[in-house]
Amino acid sequence: MSYRVPVEDIRFALKQLADLDGVLALPGFEEFSPDLIDAVLEENARFVEQEIAPLNQSGDTQPPQWKDGHVTASPGFKAAFEAFAAGGWQGLQHDPELGGQGLPKLIGAVTSENINAASLAFSLCPLLTDGVIEALTLVGSDEQKERYLPALMEGRWTGTMNLTEPQAGSDLAQVKARAVPQDDGSYRVYGQKIFITYGEHDMAENIVHLVLARTPDAPAGVKGISLFIVPKFLAKQDGSLGERNDVWCASLEHKLGIHASPTAVLLFGADKGEVGEGAIGYLVGQENRGLEYMFIMMNAARYAVGIQGIAVAERALQQATAYAHDRVQGAALDSDSRAAVSIAHHPDVQRMLLQMRGLTEGARALAYYAASAADKARHHPDEQQRKHYKTLYEFLVPVIKGFGTEMSQEVTYLGMQVHGGMGFIEETGAAQHYRDARILTIYEGTTAIQANDFIGRKILRDGGQQAQALGALVQETVEQLITQAKAGGKHARALELIAQRLEAGIEAVKLSATFTLTQAQHAFSPVFLGSVPFLLLTGNVLSGWQLARAALVAAVALEQGDDEFLQRKLATAVFYASHILPRADALALAVADGELLAPYTTAENVK
Amino acid sequence: MSYRVPVEDIRFALKQLADLDGVLALPGFEEFSPDLIDAVLEENARFVEQEIAPLNQSGDTQPPQWKDGHVTASPGFKAAFEAFAAGGWQGLQHDPELGGQGLPKLIGAVTSENINAASLAFSLCPLLTDGVIEALTLVGSDEQKERYLPALMEGRWTGTMNLTEPQAGSDLAQVKARAVPQDDGSYRVYGQKIFITYGEHDMAENIVHLVLARTPDAPAGVKGISLFIVPKFLAKQDGSLGERNDVWCASLEHKLGIHASPTAVLLFGADKGEVGEGAIGYLVGQENRGLEYMFIMMNAARYAVGIQGIAVAERALQQATAYAHDRVQGAALDSDSRAAVSIAHHPDVQRMLLQMRGLTEGARALAYYAASAADKARHHPDEQQRKHYKTLYEFLVPVIKGFGTEMSQEVTYLGMQVHGGMGFIEETGAAQHYRDARILTIYEGTTAIQANDFIGRKILRDGGQQAQALGALVQETVEQLITQAKAGGKHARALELIAQRLEAGIEAVKLSATFTLTQAQHAFSPVFLGSVPFLLLTGNVLSGWQLARAALVAAVALEQGDDEFLQRKLATAVFYASHILPRADALALAVADGELLAPYTTAENVK
């Protein structure tokens, strides 16, 4: 089926939950009127629905083809990327002084969600390019910015991130690629990189590879890694293309999902004779600070992958919803009629659809909330506020990546389940979302890596302060829910339930944080045994918080009169509070058991 | 990697948890000495490891080929099935008076797990054949038994179940296939059946289709469905093959997983000219009781699909475990050394492996426990006891199917996650287990259908008596754990934790049962909104119970001296109690919220 951007849901989340008005009032965004934003969102919806969404299934069955080092993209992908470039979408949220359009990240989050929902595999190309733009914007030299950013923002060139090597995955200390300085200030880069998304393709005239490698005298470990620009074709001063560089695509991977996205093995300095003697590279920033710079890209990319989770979940939800209302099977419960009805009338199908919707909408609202914070972190006139929002945003990035992608597994799973036997048949399309989603908890740092970041940098480093500050905000929502419930009204019981479960969620976070902070003073293993559970329960509670905020808005309005849209918001929130929020308690128990468990969870005991 | 039957784990579960000795002491099993059983299990392990397991990956990439109605099995499958037949495996647990070997179902559960772990796709052929044998044994006429059972048990012929039609999936009331009586007592069958596993292939000389169809004057709905034998080739009195029947394979499905298993669209009475005028069929049992008979097959098949979940989970666990001990990445936590270690040393990898192991071993022990009950239901000398065990077994079937298959999704998911990026590459093989497992919660009745059976027939019908009886047994284990913990010893805290979480699990079941029994007096929708959560939390608690029993055995023995195997059993149990059992509480809250939720979970609110 075709994909429709959920415009009404998105607008609700932007305006009611993510303070769009506040963001548009920030210095630097004066020119973006609400009308203009609406026009951008409408055009984006039209573009992804008409030009990208139809490619999703065909790209799955017709993956890119490798031949003699050249890669031909899936049919239609080159034209679609040209249309994407022509529409100005690549530069949307980037610095206007460097060729971007400078829209808020909050709007970028929406357009990114939409295009990813249309096709995850297609969208990886702009996603990685965004990361390269972000890194060069922040740490590239003026000359590098001039040489590369316009072409990247215009979509004439695309970008990649080259971290992984066969022996160096999550552990980048083991990176072996070498970069040898040359007399002219450039470097020659040698080595093999794997799992390079859009590492080779014919959708744009050039590819800018950002590559982690070691200079000859670099120290061992992560403190000896530097970052290099290695363009596929050397870029001349005037922006035109020079010689073909010595970087080659040796093969493409055969993957479970995102088939249309070429995942390349790249050889640097394979000396194929055209240039040879190593790939020419240019140092970005200072030597040995490559990992730090790469984290700039990674943070942007991690947030973006969280958005991918929401996107594929939304697509799976739409498809399952349509099927459930179409498929007639079985009589309705609690009805005198024995006539078969659409399966959307059966309680368990309703459960599955509400579970899908709750997870998707909760994670979306949380991601928008974070994007809003990122905009305030950059644009707020008050420095204290900028700092405040920066900390908030950074706290949320691993949560959004971790929870947003893990929940997408559940949502795409349920999307298949709603289809019954038809879901297992590839032509139906539900299975593709399930396959495509599966990479999301792995790339740009597995969920465990997000959890390491969360525990190490977001909980332990500030002694749990940011977590506590967020907890106080959630508690405020609890109080508002209780006040509203006490006022009576049609939905008092529902609001009460949401308040109760949300409060239990806060307790779950507190329990986990207390254990983590205390235990980390003695040993880390018991803490990191619960790192993923802690991360996921935090995402669960914060997403539930966003839905609770939505429920408050809806419940107040519904006292004035019926509204189908708001009724659905309330239903989604109360269902989430009942079926999903209590998982937080279960996970917190597991976190807090860490010390008792640690002697039992050993390498010997998992043989 | 190759698959190894987990012989030591299986023996432990058989002897310590599933009362193998008690089963072997039953009348009818006198000839099966422990030594003979050991020999059977050893030969089975050798057979599946050497002859079936190597076909799993090749079958995935080389699915059966359809041409002009003929289906050629994946390379090697025909020879493997001949070896399977020659080994006498098909008749293993069937009636010796009808050509089977009459081994306990408990042993059949083990051999079924092993062969399914070796290849789910291969094993579906014997699995369905088992169902046909079971149905004909119980409701076939003497003449039908003589004509079909020997060939089926010898593996010369295979069997299928034909229920689904395009408009009739979970809702069999909508079956339209027709059966027209003929003067000679046979019928002519017309209609289209879909999703027919091994509906056509060249691995055996004949296929016995069991088909649901309506006779001309049959009442509407499920009470007008009859069961027919429709052989691919008509069977002569002497067992030799007669004419080709008018049943044809129109196409095979293109599926997410179990690629090597041909899923056929079958046309009955398509009149291809060879026989024409309808497929010749023979009524099984009485007219209009087809659904009841089909449930005999379905119950056997549902149990077997639960075993499939355990099997694919075990295979994924083995592969992930091997990878985790092989892959070197990152330094150990809480260590002075910065040298990279195998990822099996990292807490989150240990968490994933123990989560996989706990789910797999818990479900395995529960399935064996049920098989043991099935053997006692058939062979116990005391009628009251037979009745008691029959009720117990039937209570457990939907739990084993529902929980055993749902947990296999989590286990195969984690199996990929342990592999990181390599997991997403098809050649690694971890993704195949994930894809293959995905059908298990769908076929032979989705998890929702299992939950309907569980709530309707296993909880409401007897007013929760069987659930209560099981609860009392679990409570006994809790008391034993507490007693053992109070005695002190090295593992007192671990046993205490298990007792505490298991007791909370019992409370979760009680809360769910009380809500269900009370609420069902008023309306069903609020109950069935929580039917799947209730089913899954029951499976979770009962699996945790089995692991707790294992922990008791291990803890007592470990006081006498170290033992790596028993140490692992204890570790698995305490981990499960911490990380998995508490989910039961969360699910019970959701179940008990049904009444509050029902007004919000409507077809309109899931649009």
TrEMBL record, chains A, B:
SUPFAM superfamilies in UniProt: Acyl-CoA dehydrogenase C-terminal domain-like (SSF47203), Acyl-CoA dehydrogenase NM domain-like (SSF56645)
Cofactor(s) required for function per UniProt: FAD
Coiled coil: none
Acyl-CoA dehydrogenase/oxidase C-terminal domain ranges (all copies): 288-453
Sequence ranges assigned to domain Acyl-CoA dehydrogenase/oxidase N-terminal in this UniProt record: 40-155
Acetyl-CoA dehydrogenase-like C-terminal domain sequence ranges: 475-595
Alphabetized UniProt keyword annotations: FAD, Flavoprotein, Oxidoreductase
Record InterPro entries: Acyl-CoA_dh-like_C_dom, Acyl-CoA_Oxase/DH_mid-dom, Acyl-CoA_Oxase/DH_mid-dom_sf, AcylCo_DH-like_C, AcylCo_DH/oxidase_C, AcylCoA_DH/ox_N, AcylCoA_DH/ox_N_sf, AcylCoA_DH/oxidase_NM_dom_sf
Family: Belongs to the acyl-CoA dehydrogenase family.
Protein name: Acyl-CoA dehydrogenase
Source species: Alcaligenes endophyticus
